């Protein structure tokens, strides 16, 4: 192969373009070689590296190839010759697919999955967890828990079967709809470990993601507090009541309640400390015990179902003692009777002693005790008993637990005595309270998505496992509601702590074979759930901290050498202690309900937005979703928040809102392709289409400014105060485009453009200018500026005002391009009906940090420009720099004007415009033109002509000749120098009547001599006289003003006398510190109408 190519080259060198026969011979040889290479690709490896084996380059961006020769060697044998020039930026498909196939989920929040690096470490072998072990069972463990064992029977007793079933159905429907939305998001691409926060933040943006992530973290933390409180409640009430530090015996009412809460606080703090130590020492032990805790939950539930079945043919014996219709606390007596027969006599019982002052039959007893009989109620009559408990029984705090249907002789006005002998309601109950207490029992549906990094196929396991877990737990909850209502008497159901059934756990009284199965099982279940919360919450906080969207949380992103979140665990334990101090499970449950509901609400919102926006990347593998279901789930979450507790809901929203604004204020520099950005794009497109319908009304007109800035050799802005003025003029309202230009070509000068754009954006941020930056590259700066003026903006959102600084040092010969470009800008803005603002002496303008405590903004209203001169001072005075400056308006009256009437009319006009300003009419009397004016005009014209003669390059001369021909196509010839007089040669004047300047001749001594003998043009003299007289008046009145605004005259219509125009502007503004020259855009910008 190589020999054939060498032969071909040698023959070409020898022939040197010989006969056609030799060319055909060489062509045939070349075609034959290419044919062989096509069918035998392995022969392409004839050019080999040192060992004869072709190398394969790294397929990723920025691979390091030292030379084109090496690059060609790297891809020999790959059939990639056509694309080898692009291998630095475009990897080979085989390598790309290999990297995606070996993708490893990173710890959520530590690094974006798009930005992972090799870092010299081996791929982590992903654990092969399926749907059951990875999703289904963890969700079951997190959903089933403390509420089921400690509060479900009480909920049924208070709310009734119908009310509680409604609550369960509503909450389970909410979690099911949320699971559907979550499944759609989770199957729309790879979700790293800790997926719940990841899904929300990447779908709704860093602001919503941070706010909802913190709420989810707080919910998980307070869930830990709730589980610990449940654990302590089981321990102190049902397992070892004697362990209470604050004894309850002999205490009544608030004192007994305070003692119970203090016991919960002390033991809760101890248990929280022990659990935190366990989590700190090693989370692997918590994970190993997870299945044990789950087994306890499942065995307890099976025991309850076994007890229900047994109650149908052999109900357990759990009698409840009632006095009248009031249920008695079972402690303190052994026989449910007032007296008993013993040894042919009647003796009193311990119950008699509780209500009477002695054990004798003639003792003085409690009135209610005397008037009512003692009865015994079967607490668990069984499922075949026919009891239903369909309707609710809401009570006030301190009410007696009473049996419906039993007779009771009581007097409403009689004082209550011996209240501690009865079972009382510990809290005031109502329907919405029950919702808030129950909802935490259906949380935990995101346990599977949080483990997405450990799943074999997360996109299949998460939807199936989560939905099956919700269906299973919902079935358990709904059947438990019905079975509890059908098996257990209402008074036992309403007995929250089992005081009427010998202190037994109410659900335990129904279980088989022993109540201790439920007690021990629920105790370990709550311990396990608490450990899981203290394990998951710090990792969630660590993920949020490592994302860097909330600056003050960054310290919690650090941890031990193995990545364990030590600082986050410390904060979690501290927040969890707040829930422990609250000490009441019924008070903590609604708090965490708020945070979980807010999290679920935004999951549904994320799915709905992605579905409605139809973003190209929204392609979930889970197809059984719809935006209407997501909106229904979001509505249910929002409704449940206010149903549970409207004030907790407001507090949760305020917390989320504060976090949202904090992230927005700090500037979360994250672009995650979120749905909120999609909404912004859709809204922007709609608004732009609406703006295309017509120009804005005068009432809505505001300066949409294009700021033209120039750059120095280091690509830094030369006039930073120009952006300060922009900020003061805009105050963050409307459109602002800061445009600049770079000379060159796009391919060669793109790095300079990036540097210039970065410099401009940094200055905009410093000066607090909210807007856009646009850098244009062109072969010359004049065309680049023209492109900015023409093409800036988009659709109806275009600039209507151009802000450009007065050219510095324009009189210097080497800077004459500056004033030429400036005059072209004035012409183009006039042609485009754009307003023009030109600050003169821009370096003397105040910065945003300065304040004027007094002074005036003077407006010299000479010609009507649509109201720009009136509007600009009003806008400036909205800024704190100019706020204390007063506005003065001067207008010029001629000899034939009635100055008194002009002042009255102007005051009326300002009154209708709702502007506060002092008004003064200045009379300018006609005067003779002074010798100084003649001299100044003559010097101006001589200077202009000398510059034209001495510095006009050949290209400029040709351009002027060409422009004259275009402007005057009817002139067949151009006068020769011999046909003109010296005076005509130098009259490059600014004339309104179209007087044409002559083409300058070639420089020669005679022309220069004629310049010093020339006379000034009378038209220029007259304009110079007017500029000078007006300047004298302005300086006299406004020399001490902080800012002077005046009308800017237009440039000459033809291109002769342009430098004279610049001289006139200099004379007009001479002696003034800060001047703002203003030209209107040809339309009214201010109106007197409402």
- Strand percentage lies at 5-15%
What separation lies between the terminal Cα atoms? 88 Å
Q: Report the average pLDDT across residues.
A: 78
Poorly predicted runs are 1-67, 103-127, 964-1004
Number of strands: 15
Rg for CA atoms = 44 Å
Which properties best describe this structure?
SLC12_C; transmembrane; elongated; potassium; three-stranded antiparallel beta sheet; alpha/beta; about 1100 residues
Q: Could you characterize what this model shows?
A:
With 1090 residues, this protein is an alpha/beta fold. 52% of the residues lie in helices and 7% in strands. It contains 35 helices and 15 strands. It has a 10-stranded mixed β-sheet with strand order 8-7-6-9-10-15-14-11-12-13, with helices on both faces. Strands 2-1-5 form a 3-stranded antiparallel β-sheet, with no helix packed on it. It has a two-stranded antiparallel sheet with strand order 3-4. A hairpin with a 2-residue loop joins strand 1 and strand 2 (326-327). Helix 20 runs antiparallel to helix 21 (627-644). The longest helix has 45 residues, at 195-239. The radius of gyration is 44 Å and the shape is elongated. The two termini are 88 Å apart.
């Amino acid at each position: 192969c190589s020999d054939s190519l060498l032969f071909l080259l040698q023959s070409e060198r020898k022939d040197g373009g010989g006969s056609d026969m030799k060319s055909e011979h060489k062509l045939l040889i070349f075609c034959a070689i290419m044919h062989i290479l096509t069918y035998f690709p392995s022969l392409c490896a004839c050019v080999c590296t040192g060992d004869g084996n072709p190398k394969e380059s790294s397929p990723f961006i920025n691979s390091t190839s030292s030379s084109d020769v090496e690059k060609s060697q790297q891809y020999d044998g790959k059939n990639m010759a056509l694309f080898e020039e692009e291998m630095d930026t475009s990897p080979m498909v085989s390598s790309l697919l290999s990297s995606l196939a070996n993708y490893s989920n990173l710890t959520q929040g530590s690094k974006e999955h798009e930005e992972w690096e090799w870092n010299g470490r081996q791929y982590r072998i992903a654990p092969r967890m399926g749907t059951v072990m990875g999703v289904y069972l963890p969700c079951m463990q997190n959903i089933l828990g403390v509420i089921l064992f400690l509060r479900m029977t009480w909920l049924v007793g208070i709310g009734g079967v119908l009310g509680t079933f409604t609550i369960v159905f509503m909450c389970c429907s909410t979690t099911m709809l949320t699971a559907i939305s979550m499944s759609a998001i989770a199957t729309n691409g790879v979700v790293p470990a800790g997926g719940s926060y990841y899904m929300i933040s990447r779908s709704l943006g860093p602001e919503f993601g941070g706010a909802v992530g913190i709420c989810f973290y707080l919910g998980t933390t307070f869930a830990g507090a709730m589980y610990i409180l449940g654990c302590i409640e089981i321990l102190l009430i049902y397992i070892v009541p004697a362990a209470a530090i604050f004894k309850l015996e002999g205490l009544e009412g608030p004192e007994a309640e305070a003692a119970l809460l203090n016991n919960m606080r002390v033991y809760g703090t101890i248990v929280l400390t022990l659990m935190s130590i366990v989590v700190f020492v090693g989370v692997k032990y918590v994970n190993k015990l997870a299945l044990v805790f789950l087994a306890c939950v499942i065995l307890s539930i099976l025991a309850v179902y076994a007890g229900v079945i047994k109650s149908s043919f052999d109900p357990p014996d759990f009698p409840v003692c009632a006095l009248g219709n009031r249920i008695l606390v079972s402690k303190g007596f052994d026989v449910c009777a007032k007296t008993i027969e013993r040894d042919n006599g009647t003796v009193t019982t311990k119950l008699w002693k509780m209500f009477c002052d002695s054990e004798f039959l003639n003792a003085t007893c409690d009135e209610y005790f005397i008037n009512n009989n003692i009865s015994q109620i079967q607490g668990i009559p069984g499922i075949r008993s026919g009891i239903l408990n369909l309707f609710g029984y809401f009570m006030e705090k301190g009410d007696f637990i009473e049996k419906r249907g039993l007779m009771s002789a009581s007097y409403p006005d009689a004082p209550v005595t011996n209240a501690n002998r009865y079972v009382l309601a510990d809290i005031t109950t109502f329907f919405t309270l029950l919702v808030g207490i129950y909802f935490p029992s259906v949380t935990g549906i995101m346990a599977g998505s949080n483990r997405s990094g450990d799943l074999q196929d997360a996109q299949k396991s998460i939807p199936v496992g989560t939905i099956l877990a919700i269906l299973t737990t919902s079935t358990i909850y709904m059947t438990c509601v019905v079975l509890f209502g059908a098996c257990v008497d209402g008074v036992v159901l309403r007995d929250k702590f089992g005081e009427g059934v010998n202190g037994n756990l109410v659900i335990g009284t129904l279980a088989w074979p022993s109540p201790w199965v439920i007690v021990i099982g629920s105790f370990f279940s709550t311990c396990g759930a608490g450990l899981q919360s203290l394990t998951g919450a710090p990792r969630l906080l660590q993920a949020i901290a490592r994302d860097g969207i909330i600056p003050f949380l960054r310290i919690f992103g650090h941890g031990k050498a193995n990545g364990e979140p030590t600082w986050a665990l410390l904060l979690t334990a501290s927040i969890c202690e707040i829930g422990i101090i609250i000490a009441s499970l019924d008070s903590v449950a609604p708090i965490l309900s708020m945070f979980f509901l807010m999290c679920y609400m935004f999951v549904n919102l994320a799915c709905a937005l992605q579905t409605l926006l139809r973003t190209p990347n929204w392609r979930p593998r889970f197809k059984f979703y719809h935006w209407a279901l997501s909106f229904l789930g979001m509505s249910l979450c929002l409704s449940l928040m206010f149903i549970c507790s409207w004030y907790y809901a407001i507090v949760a929203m305020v917390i989320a809102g504060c976090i949202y604004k904090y992230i927005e204020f700090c500037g979360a520099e994250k672009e995650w392709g979120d749905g909120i950005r999609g909404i912004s794009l859709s809204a922007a497109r709609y608004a732009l289409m609406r703006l295309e319908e017509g120009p804005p009304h005068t009432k809505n007109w505001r300066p949409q400014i294009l700021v033209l800035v120039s750059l120095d050799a280091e690509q830094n802005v030369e006039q930073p105060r120009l952006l300060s003025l922009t900020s003061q003029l805009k105050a963050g309202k409307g459109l602002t485009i800061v445009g600049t230009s770079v000379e060159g070509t796009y391919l060669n000068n793109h790095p300079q453009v990036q540097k210039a754009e970065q410099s401009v954006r940094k200055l905009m941020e410093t000066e607090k200018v909210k807007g856009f930056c646009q850098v244009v590259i062109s072969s010359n700066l004049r065309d680049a500026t023209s492109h900015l003026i023409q093409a800036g903006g988009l659709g109806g959102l275009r600039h209507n005002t151009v802000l450009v600084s007065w050219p510095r040092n324009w009189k210097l010969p080497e800077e004459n391009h500056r004033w030429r470009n400036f005059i072209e800008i004035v012409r183009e803005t006039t042609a485009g009906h754009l307003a023009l603002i030109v600050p003169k002496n821009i370096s003397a303008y105040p910065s945003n940090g300065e304040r004027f405590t007094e002074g005036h903004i003077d407006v010299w209203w000479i010609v009507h420009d649509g109201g720009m001169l009136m509007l600009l001072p009003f806008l400036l005075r909205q800024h704190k720099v100019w706020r204390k400056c007063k506005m003065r308006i001067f207008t010029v009256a001629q000899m034939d004007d009635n100055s008194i009437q002009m002042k009255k009319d102007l005051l009326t006009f300002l009154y209708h415009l709702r502007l506060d300003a002092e008004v003064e009419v200045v009379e300018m009397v006609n005067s003779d033109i002074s010798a100084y004016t003649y001299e100044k005009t003559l010097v101006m014209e001589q200077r202009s002509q000398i510059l034209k003669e001495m510095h006009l390059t050949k290209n400029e001369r040709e351009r002027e000749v060409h422009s004259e021909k275009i402007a005057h196509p009817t002139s067949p010839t151009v006068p020769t120098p011999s046909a003109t007089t010296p005076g005509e040669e130098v009259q490059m004047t600014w004339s309104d009547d179209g007087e044409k300047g002559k083409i300058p001749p070639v420089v020669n001594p005679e022309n220069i001599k004629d310049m010093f003998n020339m006379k000034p043009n009378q038209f220029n003299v007259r304009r110079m006289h007017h500029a000078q007289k007006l300047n004298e008046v302005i300086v006299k009145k406004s020399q001490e003003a902080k800012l002077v605004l005046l009308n800017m005259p237009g440039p000459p219509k033809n291109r002769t006398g342009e430098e004279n125009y610049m001289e006139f502007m200099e004379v007009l503004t001479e002696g003034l510190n800060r001047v703002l020259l203003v030209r209107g855009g040809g339309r009214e910008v201010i109106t007197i109408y409402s």
